[in-house]
Every structure is written in structure tokens, then in C-alpha cells.
Amino acid sequence: MSLVLDVPVIPRAEWSTRAAAHAERADSLTAAHRTRAARGEKHPVEDFLFTYYSYKPAILRRWHPGPDVVLADADERTTWRWYRSTAEGVAVDAAAFRRDRGSLYRGVVGLLRATAARPAQFGCFGLHEWAMAYRTADVRHAVPLRLGTDGTDAVVEAHDLKCTHYDAFRFFTPDAVPRNRAHLSRETQVTVEQPGCLHAGMDVYKWAVKLGPLVPGHLLLDAFELARDIRTLDMEASPYDLADWGYSPVAIETPEGKAQYVARQRALSERSQTLRTALLAEVTEEGDTPGRADFLRPDSV
């Protein structure tokens, strides 16, 4: 069906240039991972963005203009899901996406809004990774512990665990779980998620992917870059010795390390808040109401 929309129309030469530049940027961001994958090589830091989130590099290459834009002479996109024909060309069918993905859409918007509205907390010092290695020989990475097993346990025991992110908390060892200040659950995630959390910042990338064509390409790649930078601090502040991989430790067991961690955490939190605000501005309509977080099942992360 042909519809008339009072929105900007982008000529084919312009939008195809944007799409090509987007794919080039995406390829640059994923080049090292794709090279390692072709060789069967693992990376303890960067693989996380492709294994935990399980999104392939190809997802990053696909450019969307976002809602309220018409692409002229874009007949090839008439077969793309959640696109529609208009009198001037082809546009993202935001209404169809919201209708087809209603629960997910409302849940993501509700979580983003709730997280963005809360004050950021900066007293966790990245101890979630330490709690995942507490009193166990079955650590998550095939990398030596910087302080050894006993030293790692001692750091956990010397600190108050203040993790607010369920998808980090659920990987705590059994002995670490009761040491956390709060017992987190999937059901309470939307009520405790806060913008100072590194993992909440990384998850902005996940939400950008899940919102599909509603998210303009530049925001998707900005979210991926943010997740990459957060993951770097996440592991530099972890108990693992990553010197052989070219990473310098952020020794959060020392006052100097704590100060360094918080300074970088604050900067990353500011970036995540900027992206949350931008995502919400792009994907929501006036009158949208937050939904329940029922979509946040363990198999959805």
C-alpha cells in the first residue's frame, strides 16, 4: 500500500553513500574479531561482544535510517521486514514493528527510561568479576588470576559487594551471592538498574539491536563502540592477568586503582546516558507507556 508521509526524503545517491560508510565503519570495528574467528583464535576480552550478546558482525553492517525518513528509489528494501512503501519511496514501518514486537518494545523502552531516570552509583569498583571467581577453581576465563586464588578471595572479603545488575549477579559463585548487598532477580531488574553500572552501559548495545530498524545506524555503531570500551575497563579491573594480551590492570584493591576505576566509570556512564536519551528520542512516540520487563528472560540476553 502506498502512503503519503510528511517526512524528509533522502535521494538514493545520498542514502546509499550513508549506507556504504556505515558498512565500512562496521567492518573496521569488527575486523580484528573476524580475522581471529577465521583462524579459530579466542580473545578473553573482545569475544564477549560476539559470544555473550551472540550478535554476528553482519548485524552491525546493515544500515537503517531510523523512523520518519523516506528513502527514494529504494525498491530493494520493500522486501525488508518492517519497511513500507510510501508515495515518495520506502520508509521504516515503525508502527508495524511496535505492533509485532509490542512486549519487547514496551519492555526495552521501560527499562531504558527507568535506568536513565535513576542517579548513577559509582561504588561497586567492578567487583562483579571478582565475585564470579570467588572460592572456585572454575573461573570463567582461561587466564591466570593476577593475585592468585587466595588473593582474589581476600579482595572480595575485604569489600562490600554492591552489584545492581542481575545479568552479572547471576554468574556470582554460590559463596559470593550472599555477600552482595541486595539479592537481585529478573523480576526486579527494571527497579534497580542504574546508569553507573558498566554492564547496564554495555547492554545499550543489546537494546539497540533488539529495537531493529527503529534505531539509526550511527546510534547502533555508537552503542557497539561504547560496549567495546566498557568491556575493556570491565576486564582491566577484573582479577585476571591480561598482560600477555596488552592490557594494564586497574588495581581496584588499591586506593589509586579505585580512583582510576571511578573516573573512567563516570565517563562511560555519561556516554551511556547520552545514548539512552538518543535511543529513546528515536524509537518512542508521544504517549508511549513503559511496559513490564517480562521479555527479560534468561534466554533473551
Automatic annotation (TrEMBL):
Residues 282-301 are annotated as: Disordered. Residues 289-301 have a biased composition (Basic and acidic residues). This is 3-methyladenine DNA glycosylase. It comes from Microbacterium mcarthurae.
